[in-house]
Target: NmrA-like domain-containing protein
Amino acid sequence: MNVTVVGASGETGRSIIDGLLGSSTDFKVTAIVRPASINKPAVQKIKSRGVSIIALELVNTHEELVKVLTGQDVVVVALEPFDLEPHFALASAAKEAGVKRYIPSAFGSSCPPAGVMMLRELKERVINHIKKIYLPYTVIDVGMWYQIAIPRLPSGKIDYALTYSSDQVAEDGERASSVTDLRDIGKYVARIITDERTLNQYVFAYNEVWTQNQIWDHLEKISGEKIPRTSVSSEEIKATIVDRQTKYNEGAKSYQDLLGFVVPQYFYSEWHREDNLPERAKYLGYLTTKDLYPDFEYIKFETFFDELIKGSGVPVYAKNN
Amino acid sequence: MNVTVVGASGETGRSIIDGLLGSSTDFKVTAIVRPASINKPAVQKIKSRGVSIIALELVNTHEELVKVLTGQDVVVVALEPFDLEPHFALASAAKEAGVKRYIPSAFGSSCPPAGVMMLRELKERVINHIKKIYLPYTVIDVGMWYQIAIPRLPSGKIDYALTYSSDQVAEDGERASSVTDLRDIGKYVARIITDERTLNQYVFAYNEVWTQNQIWDHLEKISGEKIPRTSVSSEEIKATIVDRQTKYNEGAKSYQDLLGFVVPQYFYSEWHREDNLPERAKYLGYLTTKDLYPDFEYIKFETFFDELIKGSGVPVYAKNN
Model:
């Protein structure tokens, strides 16, 4: 099975490459990378693992893109959705190339398509384009990564592994969300893209469901430390989102400004609204990996906690990754 | 089962009332109508058939609306989607009232959610609102009505029944679309809203699939007349849509101006793009009534043709209905 991955050197992309190369299915994996990135260590690393590398810009390269995607069974896109042009270009080329299944860049939490998260709305525009051209697809969302769902310890003991920590609780901390180890995402993808039941469907891949209080309790228990539980009300988080989005709309357009309201939107959706629960995902039309693959062996959240405490945690979005 | 219908005096609404009252299920039916419409013959007619009538505006009446919808199992909306405010107001009130299933105003052809038909995009905004508030729902689309899929005969013999005729063929007339008798829609609705399998799903209800040439051939055969087959190319219909939409955007805002591009968009989607086929609907996520209710007894398209020729056809959108 020929699989092309776009965005292979990002966090999700690397998990997908690992999942495909580690699978019992014989995937022939190609990665499309920017010509400017061809000599980057991350690209050379996947090349050395047997991934074919194609250097190609995605926009205004329609004919080359169609040629590259011709013969590919599956295309997996793991690019940021802030600039939609590459997404539209890829989907249109995949359609023309006869790609049998297209995995657009979702890989987020379960969330209603409009009115909650700007990022989800951008993804919806890509999904709608796919549907307009009848490109066979599977949307894969993955819940919240273990790697960013954890508060810092007062001792600073696990700071080494926390690029982003989650130090506040929504309301009383009793709200729940689905969590997934970033390292499992690729394994889910390898399973999902070889499964006919998931064609033209949405799949919610997740490992476990935890409340914030359960996360705090468990981390307190295994660390022996007391972790503050600073509460954020729905009103506070909504006000933060409105404030930062207003500033962004008024001209504060840096990537940090963008994250300034995107990150609180995630927090609001995942914890306050509890959008990211399996039953909510099912309401929204997702199949779940629990129903599809009851035998799937995933990394338990408790295992991840133990790694953190032992010092073997790995930070995400680290410069040297 | 308590069912409230909004828009009960429109074409789709009347079919729904007929379907509910004629069903073997014991539906207790209520219709919400505008206070200004309370004395209209159409309203008095359904009242005389045992439908409870409630006169209430839909916008800025949230508390009354919640009170009226409390205890209702199902709310069916068959209103035009040009003004979205009543749709948002109804859905929000239904959520607060604990309505078990909400049927938003779809009742159109199968069509991708964006980029093809403005009407479909408006409906999507309502569906997205429903999903944002996790209101239990079923979207029901119904293909193209028999009643508007037929060309006029040169003799004028069937003009009496054709409020809108369909006198042109897309390209060579070989393209196909799903067709449904307007009178069957309510019967489908009665079946779908009592079916747990259709909760939080999209259902495509249709009777048969015909090409335009098959429609022309059959009508020629039973009438003995030769019917012109004026072809419209994709380029022509797209140019018409762009032209009329531009005029609308520039200020020609009458209802006729609106229909001026909405009607060609339907034609383009249903015949040129063939969006309205069962396999396309399935791709878009619909369950179909053929799969759900293989025993469903519908009015055959040939029966409808025979009625037209015999003089027992009934025009739609007629003033005296």
